Amino acid sequence: MTISPLVRFWNLIKPYKKPIRLIYYYAIISGVVNLSLPLGIQAIINYLQTGELTTSWIVLVAFVLTGIAISGKIQINQLRIVENIQQDIFAKSAFEFAYRIPKIKQINLDKVHAPELVNRFFDVLTIQKGLPKILIDFSMAAFQIVFGLVLLTFYSSYFIMLGISLILIIYLIFKITGPKGLETSIKESKYKYMLAHWLEEIASNTKTFKVLNKGNLHLNKTDDVNLHYLENREKHFKILIKQFVLFVGFKVWVAAGLLVLGGVLVFNQQMNIGQFVASEIIIIMIINSVEKITRIVETIYDVLTALDKIGHVTDLDLDEDNGVGELENSPNGVSIELNDLSFKYPNQENYVFENLSVKIKPKSKVWLKGNTGKGKSTLLNIIARIQTIENGHVLFNNRPSDYYSLESLHDQIGFISPNTGLFEGTIEENIMLNREIDPEQLKTVLDKLFLTDYISKLKKGINTKVDSRGRRMPKSTAQKIVLARYLVNNPSVLLLEDPLQFIDETEKKAIIDYIMDEQKSWTVIVVADYLYWADKANQIIKL
């Protein structure tokens, strides 16, 4: 079910009811205090008309100045409250993204480019910048309009109908133009992200576009997406202009109505000069508040659009985990059974494989073979419970995989695919991932993978920082570090796809001997073209 941006906004501020209520209390107080200015000036003018400098006049001046100071203090308090909310939203959003991204269902991740999806996090900054204007400026402007109109009614009952009609006009302006403005803002943002994604693609393939740039594909596609962005930006701008024109007309009507009505009341001696001057100050305050709301409208659109874009991440379904069992690391190993397994991708008619049934004994060393497109990679994803299935069952130690909790299952599975790589951090962080690993086991794995000598030559050793995807590191070394990540905790199951593709012949065979050693308790299923894997396997499965 699609959630509207407005509902998302209410959900965003729901946890902050108490501080927001305090902001509004301050706004009400500020609105009342600000009225001390026209009331004070009205009284001052009345005293000045007497031609005498009295103590009362000095008290009134002090009263007005005190009102201005109190209003300033209130705004400072409001800013502090909103700043706390902004910081909290940023921190919560960061953790929500970090928590959700690894848990998003694979079927959803297959439809998008995950790194590009994360760009939506920057919309949190848009929300941060927009909140002060919405919570403080907008609320204060709204309260000033209401209080100003209420105060005018004390001068004359004629102002009551005028005030009601003004509020009704503001409501109609938002009601008529608001939905269209939000729609165009969301479309504009869509092409903004498409453009950012394409620029990321250029950055990811710099050598391609550096060498093969004669056709200017990178510029042509940029121009195409940019054109769509500008078209939608122009549509959104026209809505803003339309709203601005309506607000300008509204201001003129307010000024004309109140000035004419005030003038008539003065001529008819139903209002004195002091009251007239005070009413004109109130009118100016109302007009300024309307202008402030006009400027805030675009910010409101930006915040609602940002919430819609963040929803592209937070609305994605997460992996279901109803399991309660613990898959233990036993020296007796783990058996795996595939029972009537059928799978097809949502956008395909044909099954990748159908009614597949296989039994794998504990400690087995399996070589999985098959032609391209037969589902070898998909099968590894299903066994690892990364890809969900609707038909068939995967069993570990004669229990369905969903009997076990995801955390327990994944803790006992070492899974390497072509997309498994290094992240920006130290070698130690890339291997350990904050897990408690036996130092002796770490030393053994580093020795077996021929990493000990390499690490010892580094100035900072295992604390040496590596780039994302191991960009400035030999591919063979990066591959060894990734493999070490999944061997150091001595898992029960190893699911490997081309784990040694870039490693030289001698080291490759030695590592295969270590992994496929029948004395090892782990169950291994490997997909690789290198035939030495098959030589060391004790079971071969063909898809």
Automatic annotation (TrEMBL):
Residues 336-543 form the ABC transporter domain. GO terms for molecular function: ABC-type oligopeptide transporter activity; ATP binding; ATP hydrolysis activity. Keywords: Membrane, Transmembrane, Transmembrane helix. It is found in: Cell membrane. GO terms for cellular component: plasma membrane. Residues 27-302 form the ABC transmembrane type-1 domain. This is ABC-type bacteriocin/lantibiotic exporter, contains an N-terminal double-glycine peptidase domain. The keyword Cell inner membrane does not apply. The keyword Cell inner membrane does not apply. It is a multi-pass membrane protein. It comes from the Bacteria. InterPro entries: ABC1_TM_dom (IPR011527), ABC1_TM_sf (IPR036640), ABC_transporter-like_ATP-bd (IPR003439), P-loop_NTPase (IPR027417), Type_1_exporter (IPR039421). Gene3D superfamilies: ABC transporter type 1, transmembrane domain, P-loop containing nucleotide triphosphate hydrolases. The chain crosses the membrane at residues 23-45, 57-76, 134-152, 158-174, 244-267. PROSITE patterns: ABC_TM1F (PS50929), ABC_TRANSPORTER_2 (PS50893).
